[in-house]
Amino acid sequence: MTYLIMAGQLILGLTILVGLHELGHMLTAKWFGMRVERFSIGFPPRLFGKKIGETDYQIGALPLGGYVKISGMIDESLDTSQMQGEPEPWEFRAKPAWQRLIVMLGGIIVNVITGIVIFTLIVWSYGESYLPASEARFGVVTNELGRDLGFRDGDKVLAVNGKTLVNFDDIYSPDALLARDAVFTVERDGQRVELPVPANILDQLSQRKEDAALFVAPAYPFSVERVLAGRPAAKAGIEAGDRITSVAGEPTPLFHTFQSVLKAHAGQTVPLTVDRKGQTVTLTTTIEKEGTLGFERKPLLSFSTRQYGLLEAVPVGTEKAFGVITANLKAFAKIFRGEASASNSLSGPIGIARDAFGGTFDALHFWQIVGMLSMVLAFMNILPIPALDGGHATFLLYEMIARRKPSEAFLENAQKVGMVLLLGLMVFAFGNDFYKMIF
After folding, report:
1. What is the C-alpha to C-alpha distance for residues 129 and 305, in angstroms, rounded to an integer?
2. How far apart are CA 4 and CA 412, in angstroms?
3. What is the pTM of this model?
4. Number of neighbours of residue 285 by Cβ within 10 angstroms
5. What is the largest CA-CA distance in the chain?
6. Which tens digits make up the pLDDT trace of 210-239?
């Protein structure tokens, strides 16, 4: 049943997103008078469908994608027979470049709008949780910039510029950092300590890499929120609700100490001590080489919820949606720099079903993942790779700037190269998923 729920959520989520993506292409194509021959959710073979007017609407047997076939366009079908004669008025190739560009970007635009709408409705319906400063009772964890600013692990931030801290995130606000003679007041070993903010704080922030702005974060105890199937935590028997109290004999009362111990024993098989509903359980696990076990954590702090009206939720939801793209850019940068493994960072459909959706259905979690995947789909499609929307858009931009089209032969060959690249990526993703399941 668990695997059926995983598969069902994946198929439903992809059907929604692919359907909306292809709808964006179809509606813009019809808007400009282009003939749409086929609208398909899923890849062949055809299961069922109905032809309405000039368009055959169908459901394919492979529910991991979809496509729109527009007359007079070289697409993934590689059907070039209709490209031999003179362009007909209803064909893609007969339309101005700016119209063709809008058609190619139609799916991406719809996915971005979908992501924004989903995150906006989530914020509007559920609110946004935040941490009251009084709840950061275990102090802070610092990074390199935080230590340079004078913070130490365990410090408790009491005030910013003489004003009592109410919301922990206010530490990072422009009012805190950019005020003249800005200063943090912290409690350290029972003493009040003043930490002046350097005048060149903006320069220091800009010179640091990822997450430098979060120079301190709240320290917290944790429990297991959700175990990811096929990962060491699941194989060891860790369950949702468990509190991991020690790793390899070293106490792990707070999450950052837990992370440090895992990294120190990366790749090793170690014992774990777990508090499970008041009972002590001893387990054994092998820590992944990245220093992870494969579970989602639940901070054991008392968060509060901030409610928003619908209009207030729009900018918050938009920020959360585009935050997904920012996170993906950072992840790809880490992969290209060799700081992260592609095999651990990238997942195919099996990995998405297992790690993202999981084996239980929760409406909020489902829509959060669908909103995230909508933005990821937009991001991946805008990449300038032949066979993707971004590849087509790149050639159209060239045409608009150079005022001449690339040759049909070039476009056909570029499409073939793009298809090979995408098939190779799919093989890697599926193979990587099976490898993770087995090992």
Report:
1. 4
2. 40
3. 0.72
4. 23
5. 84
6. 454 578 999 999 999 989 888 899 999 999
